[in-house]
Amino acid sequence: MPYSNASRRLRSIALRALLFATTSAAPALAQSVGRTEAANPAQVAGVDTAAAAALDSGATDVDAVVVTGARGSQARTIANSPVPIDIVSHAQIVETGKVGLKEIFSAIVPSFTLPAQNGGGTSASVPPFSVRGLTGDYVLVLINGKRRHSTALINNLATIGGGSTPVDLDLIPPSAIDHIEVLRDGAAAQYGSDAIAGVINIILKNSKEGGDAIATGGQDYRGAGKLGQVYTDYARPFLDGSIDFALDVDRHEPAPANGSSTGLLYPLLNGLPDPREATANTNYGSAYGRSTLDTTIDGSYNLSTPVGNGLEVYSFSTVSYRDIKDARGAYRPDDLSSLPQIFPNGFQAYRLIHETDFQFAAGVKGKFVGWDWDASSTFGRDYVWLGADNTLNASLGPTVTQTAFFMGTQTFEQWTNNLDVTRGFNIGLAKPLDVSWGLEHRWELFAQGAGEPNSYINGGYQVPNGGTPFDDLYHGRFPTAGLQSFTGTTPSDASSHSRNNYAGYVDVGTNITDPWYVGLAGRFEHYDDSSGDTASGKFTTRYEILPGLALRGAVNNGFRAPSLAEQDFSTTQNTSAVVGGVVTSAQVKFLPVNNPIAKALGATPLTPETSLNYSAGVTWEPTHHLRATVDLYEINLSNRIVKSQTLTGAPVQAILDPLGFSGLSSAQYFTNAVDTRTYGIDAVLEYQQSLGRFGQVNWSTVYAENQTSITHIKANPAVLDGFGPTFQFFGPLAQRQLTDSTPRDRIALGADWSLDKWRVHFEETRYGAYLEPLTNTVDAHFSPKWIADLDVSYEVRTDLTLSIGANNLFNTYPDKQPQSIVNLEATDTVLTGAPGYTAGAYGVPTSGGYLYGSNSPFGLNGGFYYVRAQVKF
């Protein structure tokens, strides 16, 4: 249930009261109780340190030096950071048994949500994610502190994160990662656009020598979804520094979750079921569940070396190739698109994706008259070839037997140049005043290339009255133009657009007294497109009331410039109908805002989304073995970019026909339509316990909760007033998809036990309730579920460790949907209305999908077990 207004007000009051206490009360509470946190040398050197060994050494992850969230010469740790930061170690990454960083993050970071099957299009192949209830576009991803480029694939058909183009985390090799710093606070003033919900900074390994190889194999409990992966990492000295190489190879097979189809599959034969029904494949679809066959190869290097005169040269790069075969629409033999001359038994259409991605960064660091400086340049490119297999363009008729097609390309490129400078000044305060400033130039390009004509044209084929059962069912009908389930990019949709961004920032911070830290940051950016100029600022503070007990808080405003994909993406689906006995072509278009048709329907240039964030928290660390943090936050987003409701009907034609844009049946575009407010709380409790001769246990409890509400919806453009009072530019269905489609809360209870050569990691996670809106008035509701994960390792030799584990140990599934909901999502009304077909006698034709909904945060395929071997060298 949504929070009540009283509950929202209470949370807001509590947040502001805690923030006020953190800031204004600090001088009155000032005491000389500052603590010195020892840096963890292993983490600084880039060597992974297992959490199980931390208790004996007296060091913990709270001692690890972090570089995200506060610039300057003062070493910051989790314990004394003025903003909430989590560290994900390399050991944690390995222990999950997951494939790709998105799945790994969904298992480790409580506020990170990855829906099982988030809509259609490329969103099903490369699924988008959300953090703190906001899409991945609101999270800035860095590698070694340098901005990572986004994906070229826009999630235009996603129900969660629709229109987003976040960084594709799965194209970063996990074996190359030393640790990951997750900043849970807005940081646009420090790092720029996209950092509204937080920052993920991936720190690569930089060992001097040695490495390891990790091989994992697994499958789900039913024997599907087979996984094979090999992670390798190897470091060598390079001149006076080091270079660290990594190469990962993954192959993950599909795991369909659909049940048997219902109803008849073949057209009635002389008014009776076709004899082939007795041997028909009632499990013909595989697009529901894990629908993709993925092969991914990720490589990287990380290099740094001193070159004399106090200079250090560094460089890093990632290179990836991914091949995806994704099951999309499944078509029954009695479907209009299943021309029996080509697919007599129906077909399963497949989308093909061949993707190459790379990022290259190089820079030099040094010191000049007391200032530390870092100059760098980073270039990234994601190129996607889109194709189709085992499908057809039915509008071309049965004489065109082509079943494999080239659908087009999508490309995103980003070139970023940075100069970062910092220095500490002793001005008589408890700590030096850290002054940092920097300049940035970023160039971006988004391009779409057209596919082959047969992937989108309308061939105009009309089913004849030929006397076959198929003809009897569909004669006189015109199959949909373009490929079934998807369509190629037309020449009119193909385009290439680029822009430049120029930015400058200033960031200062110091301890006014030993226990009281204050930081200020400001940033100005200029875009040479419709995004224009933006400015943002941030105030952070931390006050240690008593040794180990501190208050912290931040206020910041931020922004997210509309992506080039949001501004320029375009796609067309051709359709056909008979009007007055004449075949008429029509189009369904997703339009860029600068398209004349979009403008005629009220589209205006997209402007940056702006945010106002508040966060306040308490940290308590009475010993090095116990740590607790509680952080409240509020994120207010204005001018949020969403997809408009599909614009269709007579009012659309009345507007467009006089302008010469006839033949368009419906249109849609992106728009700055809504304002939202997100409330949330993150709580972390960690305790390291010695069991004497029985080993030691690291206990953890993490709780994350958030709720997004819509505070304002922009009025319909004046040109659309003719749609009438019942039309809403951003309707109830889209509203609930934005606010209620992910779990409100998540609890994770973990235990990491080690004894001699044994290590056991167990985690129990509760995912909260959520719903899946189906229409403006109908929702599917899903209850909370507990999911258990187990990983057991044994060190056979110092250089060999064997492991066995299971994700979703007890084989838990989401709630099943009522049959009425399944029928609502998948019923073919053409077939149920066919002469001689009665649902009472033959059943309602459904695909067998949608059994558990689509947005489950823990998948649709139940338990998954695996074995793993790790060799060190």
Describe the structure.
By secondary structure, the protein is mainly beta. 12% of the residues lie in helices and 47% in strands. The protein has 15 helices and 39 strands. The model is unreliable at 13-60 and 576-584 (pLDDT under 50).
Count of beta strands:
39
Beta content comes to over 45%
Structural class: mainly beta
Rg, please?
28 Å
How many angstroms separate the termini?
A: 54 Å
Ordered list of secondary-structure elements with their pairings:
Layout: H1 5-24, H2 26-29, H3 41-44, H4 51-57, E1 65-66, E2 76-77, E3 85-89, H5 90-95, H6 100-108, E4 112-113, E5 130-131, E6 134-135, E7 139-143, E8 146-147, E9 177-183, H7 188-191, E10 198-204, E11 210-220, E12 227-238, E13 241-252, E14 255-256, E15 289-290, E16 292-308, E17 311-331, E18 347-368, E19 371-389, E20 404-425, E21 433-449, H8 469-474, E22 495-513, E23 516-527, E24 533-546, E25 549-560, H9 564-568, E26 571-579, E27 582-591, H10 596-600, E28 609-623, E29 626-643, E30 647-648, H11 650-656, E31 664-690, E32 696-713, H12 732-740, E33 745-755, E34 758-767, E35 770-773, E36 779-782, E37 785-797, E38 800-807, H13 819-826, H14 829-832, H15 839-842, E39 864-872
Parallel strand pairs: 7-10, 27-31
Antiparallel strand pairs: 1-2, 3-9, 4-5, 5-6, 7-8, 9-10, 11-12, 11-39, 12-13, 13-16, 14-15, 16-17, 17-18, 18-19, 19-20, 20-21, 21-22, 22-23, 23-24, 24-25, 25-28, 26-27, 28-29, 29-31, 30-31, 31-32, 32-33, 33-34, 34-37, 35-36, 37-38, 38-39
Describe this protein with a few key phrases:
mainly beta; 22-stranded antiparallel barrel; 15 helices; 47% strand
